[in-house]
Specification:
The protein is of the alpha+beta class. The chain has three domains: about 210 residues, Alpha-Beta Plaits; about 100 residues, no CATH class; about 120 residues, no CATH class. Helices cover about 50% and strands about 15% of the residues. It contains 20 helices and 14 strands. The strands form four sheets. It has a six-stranded mixed sheet. The N and C termini lie far apart (about 70 Å). About 45% of the residues are buried. GO terms for molecular function: nucleotide binding.
Length: about 600
């Protein structure tokens, strides 16, 4: 026996991914983890190992910045007669070497920093754990179980050591406060300052996240949440500008942009990629939010105040003629259900390789889906996906993720003769000024609700406006009672004015006064005060054009339902989605400003 089953985990995952103040920080943290995992997998591949996770046969896929996303876990079978200690030592050297290379390249793009502390933090950061067991192909399942247990034990016995520097009196990183900052502000007139907020401090990981992407000419653009929130309004503005030249003439022009950013000929380096020919290149769409414009005006130097005043004057005319953008955008976070049980049900290495390849297919496929709904993938690896999307298209984007997962899993499940896993996703609707850490926590809470309260194979939505308590709803993906169907039906009825925008709040008041439980006799007759009062309120509603209640809508809302508070929350969230859709269709209303 001379083959070994090798199991390697790199990290720390939480710090790589979660420490972020911008969507770009979040993306680059997960990208960085994937790049480090690829460097480990590439060494094993070069040494003749058979890779299982990731299931890669082409070395090109393991090159830096390839399209492949690799999770933080690498699983492989070593070649005959190999030394697992030597293989994992080489993999560890590759991990450390690639991490140091990325850090050094990021520092070249950053303003002057504390080099001595930067070097010490490079050496201090990063986790690499490995375990291996002798491998018998016929005993694959047993070997896998044993090596998983050994790696789990090794990770539990991690060694802790004191930092190699004295942090007394030094500022902590603004991203997570874990380490002392190596970069604490920039000199005046330093063009690289646009990457830092006023008073922001960065440690080694923060420097890498913020400046590392600028070493990749093909780096993707990542919006901030204010830009994402402005998308429905911009879509409507484009339609309105095509139809009405008076609207088109109110959109800021290129000459105005040059005056705003005299040091940058192409306009703001953080602006959206070109949107459409009527929108000036280099003008960031987040300035369409009055609150963002006000904040930016406070940061400009005195010699540019006239240019910014001209922009504000133009935008005020535009808002008067149209509307203002909604300040809300969506984060989506989802993964497969019962993935551990599914992996345990596969008894061969070939089966795991086929399953791994299908997960890579899913991770690649969601990229195109997110783009088609004007969003972007922040992270996709294995069965995990995190994305952002505008409010008007987020629900369709979430459904498309689920449909792709089910399609791919059904195919591989049939091939391996296992029950295909299902998919659960949490979607959170947040204000553009909500701190990213809070938005992420809510997205995780929504995902938790989908799995643990919704019972998996479920969508959960949390809406967190800046006043009042968050609203949380959940429901299955499919069927007439599925949450996507219900929300779309409400959305359609609200846009068509078959349902008033106040109905959700009126039903909530009944739930508060009479209790949230709905009771029925013979499935249609009310059997408690809450049910009777809710039916009375819904029966008063009339379509504005026909003056008739749409009985199908009324029955759809309440008949057979048991939780009035859940219905009212669904209607309130559907109202928010309907407002975004109306903005995207240039159906202007001053109500959409709220």
């Amino acid at each position: 026996m001379s083959k070994y089953l090798i199991n390697i985990a790199v990290g720390p995952v939480q710090e790589f991914i979660a420490s972020a103040r911008k969507l770009k920080d979040l993306w680059y943290g997960s990208h960085l983890l994937s790049e480090l995992s690829k460097s480990v997998a590439a060494v094993l591949y070069d040494q003749g190992c058979e890779l299982i996770f990731p299931a890669v046969d082409d070395k090109a896929l393991l090159q830096p910045n390839s399209q492949l996303n690799v999770a933080n876990k690498i699983f492989a079978v070593s070649p005959e007669g190999s030394d697992p200690a030597s293989l994992t030592a080489q993999a560890r050297d590759a991990f450390i070497g690639h991490w140091e290379k990325i850090c050094r390249e990021a520092a070249l793009k950053a303003p002057s920093l504390n080099q001595e502390l930067f070097n010490k933090q490079i050496d201090d950061f990063g986790e690499f754990f490995a375990a291996w067991v002798p491998y018998e192909e016929k005993e694959y399942k047993k070997c896998r179980s044993l090596v998983e247990a050994k790696l789990g034990g090794r990770k539990s016995l991690r060694a802790f050591k004191a930092p190699a520097w004295d942090g007394t009196g030094l500022a902590k990183s603004s991203l997570d406060g874990i380490r002392e900052a190596v970069l604490t502000g920039v000199k005046a007139k330093d063009k690289r300052s646009f990457q830092l907020k006023k008073g922001e401090h960065l440690d080694v990981l923060g420097v890498v996240k913020r400046f590392g992407p600028w070493n990749n000419a093909d780096r993707p653009h990542f919006d901030n949440m204010a830009q994402v929130a402005a998308r429905p309004y911009l879509a409507g503005l484009q339609k309105a500008a095509i139809k009405d030249k008076n609207i088109a003439e109110l959109i800021p022009n290129m000459e105005m942009v040059k005056n705003l950013y005299p040091d940058f000929p192409e306009g703001s380096p953080l602006a959206d990629p070109p949107l459409w020919e009527g929108w000036p290149k280099g003008l960031s769409s987040d300035l369409l939010h009055p609150a963002v414009l006000e904040e930016e005006k406070k940061l400009i130097e005195s010699d540019r105040q006239k240019a910014w005043a001209a922009l504000e004057k133009t935008l005020k005319k535009l808002w008067t003629a149209t509307s203002q953008p909604s300040p809300y955008a969506c984060l989506l976070l989802g993964d497969g259900d019962n993935m551990g049980k599914t992996l345990d049900a596969i008894s061969t290495a070939d089966g795991h390789r086929a399953f791994s390849a299908s997960l890579e297919s899913f991770a690649a496929g969601v990229q195109d889906i997110a783009k088609s709904y004007d969003g972007r993938i922040v992270y996709s690896g294995g069965d995990d996906v995190m994305a952002y999307a505008p409010l008007d298209s987020a629900l369709n984007c979430a459904e498309a993720f689920n449909n792709l997962f089910l399609k791919i899993m059904e195919k591989v499940g049939n091939a391996l003769k296992i029950a295909p896993p299902t998919f659960s996703l949490g979607m959170v609707i947040v204000h553009q000024r909500t701190p990213l850490a809070d938005a992420l926590a809510l997205a995780r809470q929504a995902e938790h609700t989908a799995k643990n309260i919704g019972g998996k194979n479920c969508l959960a939505v949390i809406q967190d406006k800046r006043s009042g308590s968050p609203l949380s709803i959940h429901g299955p993906w499919q069927g007439i009672s599925g949450l996507p169907v219900r929300l779309k039906r409400y959305q359609e009825a609200i846009i068509a004015e078959r349902l008033p925008s106040t109905l959700g709040y009126q039903l909530r008041r009944i739930a508060d006064q009479c209790g949230p439980t709905l009771a029925w006799q013979n499935t249609t007759e009310p059997a408690n005060p809450a049910c009777a009062e809710a039916l009375r309120i819904i029966g008063r509603k009339r379509d504005r054009s026909t003056k008739q209640l749409c009985s199908d809508d009324a029955a759809f809302i309440i008949q057979g339902e048991k939780d009035l508070r859940h219905i009212s929350d669904e209607l309130v969230i559907a109202l928010q989605l309907a407002r975004a859709k109306k903005l995207a269709d240039a159906h202007w209303s001053k109500k959409e400003m709220n």
